[in-house]
């Protein structure tokens, strides 16, 4: 039986081209659980995989999509027809992913759809929202609470950033959103930012420490932005680090750590264990669900993904993109 998928392939000249193709379900990897995908979502990692980043995807042709939400067709551990979510592990990296109407994965990668969320809402969150949830959980576990002071969210018009902002603001935190998009200042306030600052506002070259301002930081950017956030974290602050849009290296002195007791905590969504996933998703469907979750996304089909991928790679995208994969019957 055939299905449709967005396939990234290497041209004879070595460049990556993306096309919608008809593929055979029988050619999916020989894993035990077949899922009919109804929704996926676009994450930064997908944009990298779709454009030939070998650190993420070694072999092409390849169907990206690190997120998939749909219905079980066959599985040793789930009933046919159960609504499920598959996220991370190797999905969409070297295992054909959610930009196809079917995925076949090990059942250990599959999670029942959390109660209180629709399949589409799960993909409005997707890996980006789950990562935002993991970051918020780290802050909470490290004792950062709404009375601790201001929380900085960097890359705040991005998927991770916007959802972290929505979750934290909804939970009563005072959140300062950092963005490189002046046109988004008002939007970020609507989502719950108490203040919005420009990306270059943290620059304080040469000084090992700036005025301590942040009780917590959800950093999605890395590079110089993370270095600056560390410098301006206040005494006892927790800084989470998940992203690399501004660079994979950063330079910091030891002073934020030894003079202010700042904690820098890494976030990994892809390999996080199932019990942690379930704990975070329970909160995403309850106390951390932003009241305006629906408004934080746009929906597109496979046909429109090309433009969305290019926009994300150029740093121009805002909010989450849900990919809808309708089936004929
Ligand atoms: N560790 C993990 O498990 C994990 C999981 C998910 C995502 N991530 C990473 O988290 C990051 C964000 O992911 P996402 O899905 O939210 O991506 P996204 O939707 O593309 O958002 C990234 C945002 O970063 C800002 N940005 C873009 N280019 C930048 C640059 N050159 N310098 C500084 N800021 C820049 C932009 O926001 P503003 O214009 O508002 O500043 C952009 O909207 C990515 O690096 C992704 O790989 C990691």
How would you characterize the overall build of this protein?
25% of the residues lie in helices and 27% in strands. With 329 residues, the chain is an alpha/beta fold. It has two domains: 143 residues, Medium-chain alcohol dehydrogenases, catalytic domain (Quinone Oxidoreductase, Chain A, domain 1); 140 residues, NAD(P)-binding Rossmann-like Domain (Rossmann fold). The strands form three sheets. Strands 3, 4, 5, 6, 7, 14 and 15 form a seven-stranded mixed sheet that branches. The chain has a six-stranded parallel sheet with strand order 10-9-8-11-12-13, with helices on both faces. Strand 8, helix 3 and strand 9 form a beta-alpha-beta unit. The longest helix has 23 residues. The radius of gyration is 20 Å and the shape is globular. The two termini are 13 Å apart. The mean pLDDT is 96. The structure holds NADP nicotinamide-adenine-dinucleotide phosphate. NADP nicotinamide-adenine-dinucleotide phosphate (NAP) binds next to helix 1, helix 2 and helix 3. NADP nicotinamide-adenine-dinucleotide phosphate binds next to helix 1, helix 2 and helix 3.
